[in-house]
Amino acid sequence: MKRAHKLGALAVTALLTAASPLAAGTAQKSFGGFVPPAGWLPPPLDPAGVQLQTKQLGPGVYALLSNRPPVDNSGFVVGERGVLVIDAHINGTMAMQIQDAVRAVTDKPILYLVNTNAHGDHTFGNYAFPAETQIIAHRKTAAAMHHFEEEKAMLLATVNGDASVFDGVELRLPDVVFEKSMIIDLGGRVVELHHFGHGNTPGDTVVYVPEVKAAWTGNLVLGAASIPWAIEGGTQAYLKTLADMAARLDIETIIPGHVLTTNGDSLSRYLKYLSEHIAEVQAAIRAGKSLDQTLESLPLKEAYLPPADSPLAAARPLMQGFHLWNVKKTYLELSAQ
Question: Hey, what domains does the chain have and what are their CATH numbers?
Answer without folding.
Answer: 2-335 (3.60.15.10)
